[in-house]
Amino acid sequence: MQQTATVTKLLPGNKAELTVHRQTACGHDCSNCGGCGEIVTKPIIVIADNSIGADVGDSVVITGSSKQVLGLAAVVYLVPFVLFFALYAVASVASLPIPEVWACVGFFLGILAAVGVNRRQKHAKPIYTISKL
After folding, report:
1. Given this model, what pLDDT does residue 114 score?
2. DSSP letters along 42-97, please?
3. Distance CA 115, CA 32 (A)
């Protein structure tokens, strides 16, 4: 996965903070489409390894591991729903009172897992690397 980004801040440990503008599937050709109504998207802030020594204001290409990104997306989006349905099923089979409450507990535990993974990822090695444009 590659995207164009702009270096906004240099960080210690040979890292950089970058601003990435999301790419759309249609390529922002709104004059011919009109489907999205020219929705303005907020840029994403990411941390990347700055092994090429890029300076603030430089446009660069960031490369990320699709495997890592998809793994994180699975934790954030799938785990809460899987736990929701799993605890609902367990509560129903075990004849526990109000299985819906157990399902909500499962969803909440999934959200807590996603928050924990997010906090750990902030302190982990960046999943993006910078290369020249």
Report:
1. 87
2. PPEEEEEE-TT-PPTT-EEEEEE-HHHHHHHHIIIIIHHHHHHHHHHHHHHHTT-S
3. 40
In tens, the pLDDT along 75-109 reads: 888 999 999 999 999 999 998 888 999 999 999 99
pTM of the full structure = 0.55
| Residue 16 identity (one-letter amino acid) | A
The distance of Cα 83 from the centroid of its chain, to the nearest Å, equals 20
Determine the pLDDT at residue 36: 55
* Three-state DSSP state, 61: strand
Q: Are strands 128-132 and 44-49 parallel, antiparallel or unpaired?
A: parallel
Q: Cβ of 4: how many Cβ atoms within 10 Å?
A: 13
Cβ–Cβ < 8 Å for 22, 44: yes
Token digits for 122? 């902030």
Distance CA 109, CA 86 (A): 12
Q: Each residue of 70-85: b (16+ CB within 10 Å) or e?
A: eeeeebbeebbeebbe
Calpha distance 6→55 (Å, rounded): 9
Share of the chain above pLDDT 70, in %: 82
Residue listed under structure tokens 């409450």: 101
